[in-house]
Amino acid sequence: MMSIIILLIIAIIVLFGVRNVRMQVITRPAFAFFKKVLPPLSSTEKEAMEAGDVWWEGELFKGNPNWNKLHGYDKPTLTAEEQAFLDNQVQTALTMIDDFDIVHNRKDLPPELWEYFKKEGFFALIIPKKYGGREFSAYANSTIVAKIATRSVSAAVTVMVPNSLGPGELLTHYGTQEQKDRWLPSLSVGKDIPCFALTGPEAGSDAGAIPDVGIVCRQEFEGEETLGISLTWNKRYITLAPVATVLGLAFQMRDPDKLLGDKKNLGITCALIPTDHPGVEIGRRHNPLMMAFMNGTTSGEDVFIPLDWIIGGPQYAGKGWRMLVECLSAGRGISLPALATASGHVTTKTTTAYSYVRQQFGMPIGNFEGVQEALARIIANTYQLEAARRLTTTGIDAKVKPSVVTAIAKYHMTELGRDVLEDAMDIQSGKGIQLGPKNYLGHAFMANPISITVEGANILTRSLMIFGQGATRCHPYVLAEMEAAGIENESDAVDRFDTLLLGHIGYATGNALSAFANALTGSKFAASPVSGETKKYYQDMKRISSALAIMTDLSMLIMGGDLKRKEMISARMGDVLSQLYLASATLKFYEDNGRQHDDLPIVHYVMTQRLHFAAKALEEAIRNFPNKVAGVLLKVLIFPLGNHFNAPADKSAVELVKGMLKPSAARDRITFLCGEFDGDKSGIAEVEAAFLAKYAAKDLYKKLKKAQRSGDLKAKLPMHDLFAAALEKNIITEAEYKQLLEADEKRLAAINVNDFEKL
């Protein structure tokens, strides 16, 4: 037996250690197989792969994340200038917002709010200071948009669009000096209003397939024969298009007469066109779920522009897709997640308050376990949203372009935004569905599908982008192997592939052993950067990271190019990566907050949920794996003892809610975006005032309950009669009687809704 083992060891050493043997037996056959199964990449896919940067998601794909790297990322903070802007300009803007009037009467922002946004630089948050802009961080940009969104989605979208994917960002990164000098100062002061036209009737999520065309030709322009582009386009869903003065336009650029060179099809190109230019059509509006932000169409037929209107100049002809992918991080990583996080803050603040002041069957509805179950999800998801908002903007502020991370943020945060709104509507019921000035949920609930569908529809973001890009971009070997396969000299290609293959085999073997060992031991021996109550989560995430890594390798090996067509499998593995990212954000948020003890019930709930969702996605991917033998192998490696990552226990929900149905620092940390100000008469302020007043009188309510149980007061009395009877019997003092009356007056105001003479 020992002789056989020794012979096997010698065979393995020869097979892998002797280069000539390895090349003939392993490397060349593997290279031929790899080229055969290599997924074909379209030009737009290739550009997308090359455009973004790999950031923290790369660690999560390796199977052994460097947690010290995560903890070493900067904690997002506001500069003194950014904080002053929030304390002054943003707060002033909030006092000018009446969202019911904006949506139902004006169907537009009031003129004074438009002017205030322009004058105070709300449209210039990302423009450099030397051009008159604010040049704020991504975190500040996100916080400003989120604060406005707590009061009005329409106002927030109006602010976020000029600071997202569009002329301002594209000019800042790629514009010629002449273009920057011409446009950025006027954009900074709102003299010019920008929009960017990408989506059309035939191109939505597949933006690379846009049919809009620009033909290189010579025509007369300003009295002279000029080399330029004749453009024909038809775009829709373009935010700010009805009021824009400058139009960013993406189109397919063609040069059939080869006036610029040998290529006839140059590819996607971006240009900047004044909307008063002859032939530009704007002004017609869509009606996006009744919201009042400007959104509409733009078109043009045979509109001639000079070549130097291409963003970046003629040398950027055909480079538009890469420019767009690199700049998508603003919309996907900042703006839409900010709207979702605002929904979380509003729903947590108002639903905890409402659950405390709204009574049924003689007690606050927050005491019912059915309500607590939904309320726990709201609180946990809001903590998750705030954590993900901070980590994602940290990456963007670090000057990386984390395309996979921003895809994760866009998809999962907008979905979490939908979840918190649905749970809040379930709990607040009539308060949520009756629109009026007192309603703080209805418009956000109505608008949420907009975030779900724009900047890449969520279904396709999940099924095609997250894992599709992540598996290749983040893998330590696959992209390099693909590049090696593309080397023209086959000898050089095989040599390069041989080096990579050795590393890849060692990497895959290590992850398989790690996943299996941690599964058998419950991750008890996995490394963790911390001790205490969160230690176990780092250990379990290491286990799941290893499982994702080995499953990715097997999936790419067995399915090859077919993997991107197995969208359900890809989506589930993308979910694993996403849950690991969201869990990382949660632990980072907890550390950045100073490991606050009163955050632990939320952290436990969130982390249990994230690990449960990640393991469930792994399990479902294994169960549906097309190769059943490989599926069995994966199950043995990843879940040899079964899947024991359970959802949060009921008692966790009860404990979590109990700590949030009272004023607390923990509650403030995930509701601070609800911009309060002196004289605030909004529904948010109204229900919060009732909450604080009733909580301040909690001991008096206990005194009344005790008197009812003892028989000193009748068990069932209307509130005011109960207070009066308690005063008459000297159970409470005159001052306490007045306090109870005031608290109950605020309670009634908070639970009531608007009614109208006629609609």
TrEMBL record:
Q: What class of enzyme is it?
A: oxidoreductase
Every copy of the Acyl-CoA dehydrogenase C-terminal bacterial-type domain together lies at: 472-756
| One Pfam family from the record | Acyl-CoA_dh_N
Q: Where is the Acyl-CoA oxidase/dehydrogenase middle domain?
A: 195-293
> Which named protein is this?
Acyl-coenzyme A dehydrogenase
Gene3D superfamilies attached here? Acyl-CoA dehydrogenase/oxidase, N-terminal domain, Butyryl-CoA Dehydrogenase, subunit A, domain 2, Butyryl-CoA Dehydrogenase, subunit A, domain 3
Any one GO biological process: fatty acid beta-oxidation using acyl-CoA dehydrogenase
Stretches assigned to the Acyl-CoA dehydrogenase/oxidase N-terminal domain: 81-190
Give the molecular function GO annotations.
Answer: flavin adenine dinucleotide binding; long-chain fatty acyl-CoA dehydrogenase activity; medium-chain fatty acyl-CoA dehydrogenase activity
Instruction: Outline the extent of the Acyl-CoA dehydrogenase/oxidase C-terminal domain.
Output: 318-458
Q: Name one GO cellular component term.
A: cytoplasm
InterPro entries cross-referenced by the UniProt entry: Acyl-CoA_dehydrogenase, Acyl-CoA_Oxase/DH_mid-dom, Acyl-CoA_Oxase/DH_mid-dom_sf, AcylCo_DH-like_C, AcylCo_DH/oxidase_C, AcylCoA_DH/ox_N, AcylCoA_DH/ox_N_sf, AcylCoA_DH/oxidase_NM_dom_sf
Protein family according to the UniProt entry: Belongs to the acyl-CoA dehydrogenase family.
Q: Which metal ions or organic cofactors does this protein require, according to UniProt?
A: FAD
EC number(s) for this protein?
Answer: 1.3.8.7, 1.3.8.8
Instruction: Report which reactions are catalysed by this protein.
Output: a long-chain 2,3-saturated fatty acyl-CoA + oxidized [electron-transfer flavoprotein] + H(+) = a long-chain (2E)-enoyl-CoA + reduced [electron-transfer flavoprotein]; a medium-chain 2,3-saturated fatty acyl-CoA + oxidized [electron-transfer flavoprotein] + H(+) = a medium-chain (2E)-enoyl-CoA + reduced [electron-transfer flavoprotein]
What keywords appear on the UniProt entry?
FAD, Fatty acid metabolism, Flavoprotein, Lipid metabolism, Oxidoreductase
List the pathway annotation. Answer: Lipid metabolism; fatty acid beta-oxidation
